[in-house]
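stuck on this:

***
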Amino acid sequence: MALHLTPYQAVCDSRLNLLPREITTRLRTCVDAGAHEGTWTRALRMTFRPELVLLVECEPRLVQKLRDTFCQFGGIQVIDAALSGEDGSAGFYQLRHPAGSSLLKPRDEIGKQFERTSWDILGRAQVKTISYDRLVESAEEVSILKLDIQGAETKVLKASVSGLGKTKAVIMEVPFLSHYEDDSTFPQLHQLMKERGFGLYRLSDTYQRAAGRALFADAVYIREDILENLSSS
């Protein structure tokens, strides 16, 4: 697919360029978990034609902005909740930089790896939580699950049965250094994805501060049965 520079950069930044054509040719339900300001969904809709996109975000500073941004588009739903292992509610740590806010408490020492004061905790909010199985219970198929939920990935993956069973691809942020209390790093997440029937397809460049250590990357996982057909074609 030929794209101008700006949309191509958006697709690359959203890691959609790492997906195989067999996934992106026909997109049904897609999930943007940890939607933040909706950048991933904008890149997705700019290039592809998903039937439905579920944007999941609970950060109080961001939810209404998402609704205002996408209210005029069909086939998009903004879910005011944190994707987690169960339905209910939980305390949510609000950081100075909203993209780092999480259900898990950030580690004190991780702040020095990022911009100064960006990891300061400003407060806590009580938010609704929703399991992945409940979120996609009415979907016949989930083409892409984008999972960027700041350390809570393990909660979601361990609790899901039916949801992951109908998901074809997962784009997930994988840390190499623990960022939050009780989070998981790449080895644990990779093993969990293997247990859930997914294989690693692509890994993005790593993120690190200047002259610093590798902090995280984005991993693309594809269902093993789809991967087997890719390698044989």
Remarks:
- Strands lie at 29-33, 52-57, 76-80, 82-84, 88-95, 121-131, 142-147, 167-175, 198-203, 216-223.
- The chain has nine helices and ten strands.
- The longest strand covers residues 121-131.
